[in-house]
Amino acid sequence: xxxxAHPDPAAAFMAPGGWRxxxxxxxxxxxxxxxxxxxxxxxxxxxxxxxxxxxxxLGFVLLxxxxxxxxxxxxxxxxxxRLAARSRRALLGVAGAxxxxxxxxxxxxxxxxxxxxxxxxxxxxxxxxxxxxVTCAAYSVVxxxxxxxxxxxxxxxxxxxxxxxxxxxxxxxxxxxxxxxPGLAGLGATVVVFALLLAAGWWAWSRSLAPGDRxxxxxxxxxxxxxxxxxxxxxxxxxxxxxxxxxxATLVLFFxxxxxxxxxxxxxxxxxxxxxxxxxxxxxxxxxVPRLGLARTWLAGMLLSVFAFVWAATLGAGDAWAFLVVCAxxxxxxxxxxxxxxxxxxGLIGQLGERGQREGAYFGWWNFAAKxxxxxxxxxxxxxxxxLGYEPGTRDPAALQTLTLxxxxxxxxxxxxxxxxxxTLVIRTPRGAARPHAAPH
Length: 441
Fold this sequence. Notes:
By secondary structure, the protein is an all-alpha fold. The protein has helices spanning 18-26, 29-50, 55-86, 88-110, 114-118, 121-152, 157-185, 187-206, 229-259, 267-292, 294-312, 320-351, 359-387, 397-427. It is built from 14 helices and no strands.
């Protein structure tokens, strides 16, 4: 008689008491999402207002630092694979050291030395660019290592979705906390809270369910993830869909202020409803995964997003309360974007026979694509709007129509293209097609 195969560690997330495993693994997602808001949203405004940094030069410096960070991600992923192959203790130790660098870097960015501030704009921008590059690199090491750890837990589609859902749901809590805390307690307290949350997240992760020893293998070189056609297909869907989400994220405040002419007091409510709806919807989407599968459930989320943005295109001045419903619906759809693509990638790595060996390499390129989406949206949407005649604060009907087309209908077109690509390239592709014809030597 053959002995029954041991279940993958991810199966424990579905068992009674599985919430403990989910909390221990996913808690680190909260501070990582928490710090992303100060790094990418608050920092430019803080430097412009507190230190009178020139906006154009500041934008160029921060964009260059983020570009360096994005380019490093694939290399960071391969490095994390080597650390994991050496030992889990080595991986956790390096991630812990990078977490310390991350805290110190955030403090140094928000509170540059007085001598640097007094030296003028050029030294201040050089300080911001250098510290930003180091801080973002430290962030990427922790994030990629954490994501790859979850993928190594294996499991079937519902189990993988549950693992990712814990990480992303707690990430949404971090986003909501970071959106509120700086205004209530100040930037200094925000950094202190972040440091405490990051320490707690790392400690919980170090005591979380670990990948089985049988899934950890020493690297023997291996080919780039780009050699796998199935990865290229899934990444294409991820990039198109991510761009569709990044465009409205870039333009939402312009749409609220100029098209809806909503009171400024409602702006936090719009964002809060959006992210809270995403967090609350994740358990509902997880219940669909066993019936529809990961890919079809993701497709359902894309279609719901299209419906929400088509409705938003019909709104105008004074429709702020209707837009709250739009935020809720699009937030519900966001729940699929946060949880299901990463679970699909984890399953694909297993199908390719590279589980426990190259998760970091795959997630390094995955994170590069995610950052590329944000840069592409910011770098094209705003200049395109300006070229078509839109300026912030305008009430010209033609300019506002241009804004509506960019905020509402362009994401719909991109979402539909992403949905069609998901259906044709992933859903209809035979599962066996993911496997390489020959194992890499």
